[in-house]
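Need Phosphoribosylformylglycinamidine cyclo-ligase's 3D structure for a figure. Predict it.
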Amino acid sequence: MSDQSTGATYAAAGVSIEAGDLAVELMKKWVGKASRPEVVGGLGGFAGLFDASAFKRYERPLLATATDGVGTKVALAAAMDKHDTIGHDLVGMVVDDLVVCGAEPLFMTDYICVGKVHPERVAQIVKGIAEGCVLAGCALVGGETAEHPGLLGPDEYDVAGAGTGVVEADRLLGAERVRAGDVVIAMAASGLHSNGYSLVRHVLLNQAGWQLDREVPEFGRTLGEELLEPTRIYSLDCLALARATEIHAFSHVTGGGLAANLARVIPAGLHARLDRGTWTPMPVFQTVAEVGRMETLEIEKTLNMGIGMVAVVPPESVDAVLAILEDRDVEAWVLGDIVDRAGDYAKADGAALYGAYA
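Structure prediction for Phosphoribosylformylglycinamidine cyclo-ligase:
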């Protein structure tokens, strides 16, 4: 009797083509909801297509691009087996970087890397991405789901995305427009958003030993529910402001905290003076600070402290900006101002907070 052996297969190596195909079928209905008139074709091509003839109405269109992920927040989504919001976070991280320069987000692509394709789970991730794109006014024109057995565990995954936007050259926002006397307006965050989770997990889960199903009275829900609160997406709100009134700059508050991110749009020789007494951070920030016995300056370098986006505007725009944001159900307030010297609050250009939280 002769020896017979079975040849190696992709499935035996841990990659299932069939599971990947099923995931694509399950996600199609969600991707179809995240479209724009300029999108050409549908899901399944080698590249997403966008009709650039729409740019003819621009005098000098500038394309803006951004890419990001959501960091270790994905570990919490995996631990809670809840995967339909992490894509929302991904969109927020990308499109709100685009809108900072005044660019309208046009389209996104995503990359989902998994240890093993669970079709329903992948579809839930894409559902969140598509819903985020709808909230941002942009299209989801394509993506990639890659199965990497041996690199990731069967239930592990990561997500990343890239987006493209467009802005008229003479409408470009940034440090070049900022002047002494400008007013800094804060827009409230929905929570932690998608930055600082390595710190939060270290403090609350590792050091304190809290469980994700722990009921936290200050939060009014479980710890896991609080930590998975989706990132607020501000792109349409910021575009509404830029179209209706004069805006000099936006700052998306992500890794590095409020002062460091605002400093990126403050020109040399000017300084942002911000008052902690104008708002009270949400309980989750106080909890992390207390449990981790963290100094105020240390936690401010990592977390957004309840402010997700900042606008720098001339004084005559303040009332209009606040009224527009109120109409759009975005909590906002005057946070500080721009001065032509550091004054008593800091010794260098950039941004600094003073006072105590209200």
